[in-house]
């Protein structure tokens, strides 16, 4: 990228160079996310104008306050966190696997979490309540990625082998999920099915707080790893030459990405596709791989899920449909258009 | 062993599987019973009734679906020069499934065969999109992009299917049958038109074998030896729509057969498509039949959906195939 | 859908809260909300605020059984969720529920709509609505039933909360009297052939389900004295799933009450195929001409005492038909 496009920020001896355009574009995406977020607060069964919204914030006990602060805001935040986290997870996977196909979905993470969650809902929820569901989902995600890694290991792994194993494991896990769905009593099937679609319906502040804590923790873990993620697309031999311990950083990044996807799925259900599409679009928006691209990706993921939830709960009033349904409906057209435009 | 011998052995294995499929189930029947049921059926004998009304139809269905999916997968892989291409991964099955569920949700417009017609419509629409993408300069240049586009399509169609199911929850359970795949409960006397259509699809692909074989060396090579690419592609896509549409209409979502069987057939037989594609048809039928037999025996008195069973068999095979790849890049 | 689930009972039974409060509807609430609930409950115990008063409580019902029960108790809800079949409201409830606003799907009712209705009482089921319980508690007083199909519990709990215990007792007395009476008549009619074996069959597009005694419909048949065949008695859970005609003999019985799962052509075609099949024709009920069609709405989907009354009507009609034959 041309030097004229970069800015430097200095604090005493610390200095960083930022490429101008990617950050400007990232900012645009953030503004977009903010607008969608505001729309999400304004639109609903009851329309609240921005002024009414402010009034509602000031009077949390009023009807409007209840709707804005207890119903819409936690839901919006949960959508934002789930979408953002999934997108970051997908971005890391795509960097590490050097493959645009990589995502929590194709690597089997989503399917593993789903299989575990559906098994939990069908067999254990009766005795243990639904509080263990997030843990089950995360356990499933980790177990599957461990198996994928083990299967792909042949004195080290290669990204492509990981993806192929992931596709195999994903299919195996969804077969297991289908089997549980078919064999369990129908009433469980229904709740499991809604969960599988991915939904932020009924989000409350406790859930938002839990998910936010997880996200914050994982973000701290991610910060020192980001520069390795940026180097990951390099050839293995070249990276070794640069002093990167390739296998170790690959494993670490995979673990963090899996955990990120795992927490998102644990609280938002198996929202497929965000992790694949958002980073892909982000790469189109900010071409240079960098922190700007990572953040753009997160903002795009959040936007997609917030928008999908907004559509889901308002388009067919009074029906309140799971956001997961509309994620693909919103993401696919963009995605296909981008794929076709890319080579021009 | 010559490849001809191997093909013959596959055929023999298929016959053996078919015979087992007629015998196996909650009631095991003897070969004598089968002989009796096929050649001198009586209207009062329970064994004869069982064989004639349920076992024969599910056996024929499993063979048809397995062969169709394997051939559709093989043709797709050749056509797109992409080892991962299959009706499942490119979203063709998902398209068929979506229209089936869509029509089932609206009560089939009062016509009991309308979901089947829908399967073809859905398969055709999805195939048309995939075809358009595959022919597009941007995607034909990169096999990965076609797969990505296919994955996106599959996600889109399954999102639509989910939307329908969440709105019409009473239909969920009928739809689960399609989503999980099954060859039971489709008697041949109503399903035979679909079997015929699948057979037409298989026959249609037979004269394409020679050109497809040349095509596997590359589009430019094929064009240079006088293969009319557009015509070949159009015919092949037509065959795929018939095969995949009929499979989904007959048995719902059956995964992995279209993806892995062509690979196994290539390994087992020869690199020559004229040999391995027919071999893939046999192998697909064998695997699907085997899956169905296991599906009805493992958790009696219930049944494992056959789509689940093919995944349970197919995924480990796929993993073994990937691990066996000597290619350093994989 | 389906009102049956064996394991649902315990779905959200959190032992801690169960020990903490002995109020039936007490649930896991944030503490201010719980205080409000307890205060509300205390107030209602001291002076049944709406019993007999001109002011009727504004009730929102979030599952089919609660809607049915509210109507039975003479309370018209101010908001209800969409029905599973014959949308949006079951035909037998339509006269009583004309104009009542709909709140969306039973699995995820629109919370914003509920807020606007300003309900006094929200009747929900822990099985379906455990996740939104804290939110519902902020909107109104929440009455959580464990299950969606235990109509007796739904009736008594709702009656207590609405101050209509007398009506509930009247319903239960009527119901028990009808069951006793009908049971005796069945016994008298079939004499030494009683108890007959029964199968409650649900014909779906691609499979057949047989409901067992623990199910909503099955429990009524069991109370009337019907028995299930040996194979069904061995089965656990609320229903048996038959895949394929080969397994039909497991549900063989003297009487079949048969419902079609939906009004789709595929289901009707499947039932025609079954009836034409030699294995079906050989079973006891078809040979003795004792296959009686019933509606799925009361038998599986209603979940309330009015639905049960409709089931008893069905059995009475069948008995009248039997007597006419003899």
From TrEMBL, chain A:
It is a multi-pass membrane protein. Gene3D superfamilies: ABC transporter involved in vitamin B12 uptake, BtuC (1.10.3470.10). The chain crosses the membrane at residues 26-46, 76-94, 106-126, 132-153, 160-182, 188-206, 211-232, 252-278, 290-311, 323-340. The keyword Transmembrane helix applies. Keywords: Cell membrane, Membrane, Transmembrane, Transmembrane helix, Transport. InterPro entries: ABC_BtuC-like, ABC_transptr_permease_BtuC. It comes from the Bacteria. SUPFAM superfamilies: ABC transporter involved in vitamin B12 uptake, BtuC. It holds the Pfam family FecCD. Belongs to the binding-protein-dependent transport system permease family. FecCD subfamily. This is Transport system permease protein.
TrEMBL record, chain B:
It is found in: Cell membrane. Its main location: membrane. InterPro entries: ABC_BtuC-like, ABC_transptr_permease_BtuC. Keywords: Cell membrane, Membrane, Signal, Transmembrane, Transmembrane helix, Transport. Residues 1-24 form the signal peptide. The chain crosses the membrane at residues 56-76, 88-110, 116-134, 146-167, 235-261, 273-298, 304-322. PANTHER family: FE(3+) DICITRATE TRANSPORT SYSTEM PERMEASE PROTEIN FECC-RELATED, FERRIC ENTEROBACTIN TRANSPORT SYSTEM PERMEASE PROTEIN. This is Transport system permease protein. It comes from Salinisphaera dokdonensis CL-ES53.
UniProtKB/TrEMBL annotation, chain C:
Residues 58-323 form the Fe/B12 periplasmic-binding domain. CDD domains: FhuD. Belongs to the bacterial solute-binding protein 8 family. This is Periplasmic-binding protein. It is found in: Cell envelope. InterPro entries: ABC_transptr_periplasmic_BD (IPR002491), Bact_iron-sidero_bind (IPR051313). It comes from the Bacteria. It holds the Pfam family Peripla_BP_2. Keywords: Ion transport, Iron, Iron transport, Signal, Transport.
């Amino acid at each position: 990228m041309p030097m004229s496009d970069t800015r430097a920020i200095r604090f005493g001896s610390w200095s960083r160079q930022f490429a101008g355009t990617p950050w400007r574009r990232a900012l645009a995406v953030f503004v977009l996310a903010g607008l969608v977020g505001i729309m999400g607060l304004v639109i609903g069964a009851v329309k609240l104008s921005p002024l009414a919204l402010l009034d509602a914030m000031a009077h949390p006990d009023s009807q409007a306050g209840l709707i804005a602060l207890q119903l819409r805001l936690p839901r919006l935040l949960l959508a934002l966190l789930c979408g953002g986290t999934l997108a970051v997870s997908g971005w890391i996977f795509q960097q590490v696997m050097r493959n645009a196909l990589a995502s929590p979905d194709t690597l089997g993470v989503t399917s593993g979490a789903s299989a575990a969650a559906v098994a939990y809902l069908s067999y254990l929820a009766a005795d243990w309540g639904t509080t263990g569901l997030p843990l089950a989902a995360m356990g499933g995600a980790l177990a599957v990625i461990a198996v994928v890694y083990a299967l792909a290991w042949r004195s080290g792994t290669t990204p492509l082998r990981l993806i192929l194993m992931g596709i195999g494991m994903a299919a195996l896990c969804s077969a297991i999920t289908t089997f549980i769905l078919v064999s369990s009593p129908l009433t469980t099937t229904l709740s499991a099915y809604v969960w599988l679609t991915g939904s932020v319906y009924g989000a409350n502040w406790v859930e938002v707080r839990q998910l936010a804590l997880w996200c914050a923790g994982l973000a701290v873990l991610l910060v020192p790893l980001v520069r390795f993620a940026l180097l990951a697309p390099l050839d293995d031999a070249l990276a070794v030459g640069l002093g990167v311990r390739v296998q170790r950083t690959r494993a670490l990044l995979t673990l963090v990405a899996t955990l990120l996807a795992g927490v998102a799925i644990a609280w938002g259900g198996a929202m497929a596709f965000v992790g694949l599409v958002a980073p892909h679009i982000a790469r189109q928006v900010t071409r240079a791989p960098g922190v700007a691209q990572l953040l753009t990706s997160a903002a795009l993921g959040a936007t997609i899920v917030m928008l999908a939830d907004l559509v889901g709960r308002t388009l067919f009033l009074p029906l309140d449909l799971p956001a997961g349904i509309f994620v693909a409906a919103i993401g696919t057209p963009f995605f296909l258009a981008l794929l076709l435009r890319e080579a021009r | 062993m010559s490849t001809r011998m191997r093909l013959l052995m596959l055929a023999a294995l298929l016959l053996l599987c078919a015979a087992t499929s007629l015998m196996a189930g909650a009631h095991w029947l003897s070969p004598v019973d089968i002989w009796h049921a096929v050649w001198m059926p009586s209207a009062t004998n329970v064994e004869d009734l069982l064989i004639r009304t349920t076992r024969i139809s599910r056996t024929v269905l499993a063979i048809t679906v397995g062969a169709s999916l394997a051939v559709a997968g093989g043709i797709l892989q050749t056509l797109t020069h992409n080892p991962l291409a299959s009706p499942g991964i490119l979203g063709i099955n998902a398209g068929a499934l979506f229209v089936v569920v869509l029509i089932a949700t609206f009560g089939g417009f009062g016509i009991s065969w309308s979901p089947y017609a829908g399967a073809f419509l859905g398969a055709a629409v999805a195939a048309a999109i995939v075809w358009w993408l595959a022919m597009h300069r941007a995607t034909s240049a990169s096999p990965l992009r076609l797969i990505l586009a296919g994955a996106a399509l599959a996600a889109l169609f399954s999102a639509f299917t989910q939307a329908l199911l969440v709105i019409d929850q009473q239909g969920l359970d009928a739809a689960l049958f399609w989503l999980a795949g099954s060859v039971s409960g489709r008697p041949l006397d109503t399903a035979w038109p679909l079997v015929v259509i699948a057979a037409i699809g298989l026959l249609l692909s037979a004269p394409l074998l020679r050109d497809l074989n040349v095509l596997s060396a590359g589009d430019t090579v094929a064009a240079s030896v006088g293969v009319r690419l557009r015509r070949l592609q159009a015919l092949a896509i037509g065959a795929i729509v018939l095969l995949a549409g009929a499979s989904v209409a007959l048995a719902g979502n059956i995964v992995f057969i279209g993806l892995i069987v062509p690979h196994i057939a290539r390994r087992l037989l020869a690199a020559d498509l004229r040999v391995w594609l027919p071999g893939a048809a046999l192998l697909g039928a064998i695997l699907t039949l085997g899956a169905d037999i296991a599906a009805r025996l493992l958790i009696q008195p219930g049944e494992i959906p056959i789509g689940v069973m093919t995944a349970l068999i197919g995924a480990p095979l796929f993993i073994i195939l990937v691990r066996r790849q000597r290619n350093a890049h994989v | 859908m389906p009102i049956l689930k064996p394991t649902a009972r315990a779905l959200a039974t959190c032992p801690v809260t169960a020990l903490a409060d002995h109020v039936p509807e007490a649930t896991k609430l944030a503490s201010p909300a719980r205080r409000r609930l307890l205060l509300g409950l205390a107030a209602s115990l001291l002076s049944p605020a709406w019993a007999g008063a001109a002011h009727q409580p504004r009730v929102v019902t979030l599952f089919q059984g609660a809607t049915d029960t509210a109507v039975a108790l003479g309370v018209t809800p101010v908001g209800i969720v969409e029905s599973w079949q014959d949308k949006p409201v079951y035909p037998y409830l339509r006269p009583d529920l004309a104009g009542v606003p709909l709140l969306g799907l039973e699995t995820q009712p629109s919370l914003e709509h509920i807020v606007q209705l300003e309900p006094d009482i929200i009747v929900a089921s822990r099985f379906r609505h455990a996740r939104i319980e804290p939110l519902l508690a902020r909107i109104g007083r929440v009455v959580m039933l464990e299950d969606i199909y235990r109509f007796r519990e739904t009736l008594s709990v709702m009656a207590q909360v609405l101050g209509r215990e007398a009506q509930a007792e009247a319903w239960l007395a009527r119901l028990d009297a009808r069951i006793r009476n009908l049971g005796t008549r069945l016994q008298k009619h079939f004499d030494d052939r009683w108890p007959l074996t029964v199968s409650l069959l649900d014909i779906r597009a691609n499979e057949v389900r047989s409901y067992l005694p623990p199910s909503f419909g099955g429990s009524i048949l069991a109370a009337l004295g019907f028995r299930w065949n040996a194979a069904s008695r061995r089965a656990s859970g609320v229903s048996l799933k038959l895949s394929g005609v080969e397994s039909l003999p497991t549900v063989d019985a003297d009487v079949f009450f048969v419902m079609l799962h939906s009004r789709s052509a595929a289901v009707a075609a499947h039932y025609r195929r079954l009836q034409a099949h030699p294995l079906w024709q050989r079973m006891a009920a078809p040979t003795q001409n004792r296959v009686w069609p019933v509606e799925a709405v009361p038998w599986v989907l209603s979940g309330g005492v009015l639905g049960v009354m409709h089931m008893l009507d069905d059995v009475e009609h069948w008995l009248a038909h039997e007597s006419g034959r003899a």
